Amino acid sequence: MLGDFSYCNPTKLYFGAGAVKHLNDELPKYGKNVVLIYGGGSVKKNGIYDEVVALLESNGKDVAEIAGVMPNPTVEKLYEGMEIARRHKADLLLAVGGGSVCDYAKALAVSVNCDEDPWEKYYLRFDEPTCEVLPVGCVLTMVGTGSEMNAGAVLTNHKSKLKIGHVFADEKVMPRFSVLDPTYTLTLPHYQMVAGIYDIFSHICEQYFSGEDDNTSDYIAEGLMRSLLHSSRIANKDMKDYEARSNIMWTATWALNTLISRGKSTDWMVHMLGQAVGAYTDATHGMTLAAVTMAYFKHILPFGLAKFKRFAVNVFDVDPTGKSDAEVAEEGLKALESWMRELGLVMNISELGVTEDMLEGLADATRIQRGGYKILDRAEIIEIFKESM
C-alpha cells in the first residue's frame, strides 16, 4: 500500500435476529427527546414501528416523528425536519428504514443547529459542520447504501435538478449505533432487493477501480464481491434464505464504511452518472447505477486494463490462458453483465424515464471525479449517457 491515511469508525453495530432489543442498551445514553424518522409507512405494516416505539416508551422517551422520508430525500423534506427537531429540542435522531432514511437523519443532524442554509453550506460549498451535530442511531430495514456505518448523506434538489452526496469528514456525523436485523429485510419486494444488491456491488467497484499499487484494500474488496455474487444468486432464487440475506446485509456495511477506501484514490463516476439520472427521474438508486455501469466501464477499460483483467480473474474466475489482457478484461465485463441480467437489473436509462432531450441536462448535473482511471470531459459524459440509452 502506497497511500497514507487515518481510519476511525465509531459506529457500534448490533447484528442478528432480534437485535432491536439492544436499543435498551443505547437509549439510556441520550436525553429524553427523541425524533423518530421513517419512510412511507412500511415499518408500520410489518410491525417494526410498533417494536421500536414500545422500546422508546419503556425507556421513558418523549418522541416526535418525521414520517414520509422519500427514497431520494429532498431539500424541502430536510427543511421540514429541521423545524420539527428544533421544536422538539431533539437529543437523539433515530432513523428506522433504509439508506435514504439514514442519510436523511445524518443530513438533519448537521443542519438542526446550523445558522446557514444547509444545502448551500454542505452540498454546494461542501463545508464541514461548525455547529453542534446531533447524535444519530439507525434501525436498518433495507440494505445497500452502507449508510448505517458511514458519514455520507445524499440529498436531491428538484428545482436545480441536482442529486448530491456529501461524505462528511467528522466521524461525529456517523451513526453512534446501528441495529442490523436481517429478518427486517425479508419482506422487501424483489426489485428493491436486487437494486440494493447492485448498490453494494457498485460501492465496492468505485473503490476497487482506482490505483495501481499492491493494496490490501483491493484484496478485501475482491473477497466482498465474491461473497456478494454467491449470496445474491441464492437470494435471487429464494428471497427468504436467512443466511444469504444476512451475508448481503453484512457485506453492504463493509462495502461502504470507508475500510476498503483506505490507501486508495477511489473513482465514484458511476455514482455521479447515476445520481444525475436520479435527479431527473427519481428512479431507484441501485437501478440508476446498473443502467450506466456497462457503458462507463467499457469506456474506461483501456485506461485501467490491468485492474479490469485482475477483476475478471479474481472475481469472476475468468481463465486467462492463451488470451490477451484485453480479451480477459472484456470477458470479465461480459460475466458482470450476465450476472446483472440474471438478477433482473435495469440495464438502460431509457427504461428509467430518460429521454434524448434530457442528455445535455444530465451532463450538466454530473459532477466530474478525478480518482479513477480516466477523467471524463463533458463530451465523454454525453456519449456514455447515449450508450446507456
Structure described in brief:
The protein is an alpha/beta fold and 389 residues long.
- Strand segment tally: 8
Mean pLDDT: 97
Oligomer: single chain
CATH architecture of the largest domain: Up-down Bundle
CATH topology of the largest domain: Dehydroquinate synthase-like, alpha domain
Uncertain runs with pLDDT below 50, 5 residues or more? none
Strand content: 5-15%
Helix content: 40-55%
Question: What's the CATH first level of the largest domain?
Answer: Mainly Alpha
* CATH homologous superfamily (4th level) name of the largest domain: Dehydroquinate synthase-like - alpha domain
Overall morphology: globular
Distance between the termini: 38 Å
Number of domains: 2
How would you characterize this protein structure?
With 389 residues, this protein is α/β, with parallel strands linked by helices. It folds into 2 domains: 12-185, Rossmann fold, CATH 3.40.50.1970; 190-388, Dehydroquinate synthase-like, alpha domain, CATH 1.20.1090. The chain has 15 helices and 8 strands. It has helices at residues 23-26, 42-45, 48-58, 75-88, 99-109, 118-124, 190-208, 216-237, 242-255, 269-281, 285-300, 305-316, 325-343, 359-365, 378-388; strands at 12-15, 33-38, 62-66, 92-97, 136-140, 152-157, 162-167, 177-180. It has a 6-stranded parallel β-sheet with strand order 1-8-5-4-2-3, sandwiched between helices. Strand 6 and strand 7 (162-167) form a beta hairpin.
